[in-house]
Amino acid sequence: MKIAIVGSGLGGLLAGAILSRKHQITIYEKLPFIGGRFTNIEMEGFQLTTGALHMIPHGSRGYLAKALKLAGANVKIIDSKPDGTFLIGGKEYLYKELFSLLGVREKLKALKMATNLKIGNFDKDMSFGEFLEDVDLALKVGNSFTGWALSLSAYDVKMEEIYEIAKNYYKFGGPGVPIGGCKGVIDELERIILSRGGKIIKEYEVKKIEIDEKAYVDGEEFDKVISNISPKETERISNIKFLDKKIEEAKGIKISIASKRGLIKHSGVLFTPECERINGLNQVTNVDKSLAPEGYHLIMTHQAQITNNIKKEIDLGLEDIENLFKGIDYKILHIQSYRDGIPVNHAKSGIYIENIVNDKLLLVGDGAKGKGGIEVEGIAMGVLKVVNHIGY
Ligand SMILES: Cc1cc2nc3c(=O)[nH]c(=O)nc-3n(C[C@H](O)[C@H](O)[C@H](O)COP(=O)(O)OP(=O)(O)OC[C@H]3O[C@@H](n4cnc5c(N)ncnc54)[C@H](O)[C@@H]3O)c2cc1C
Question: One Pfam annotation, family name (predicted)?
Answer without folding.
Answer: NAD_binding_8
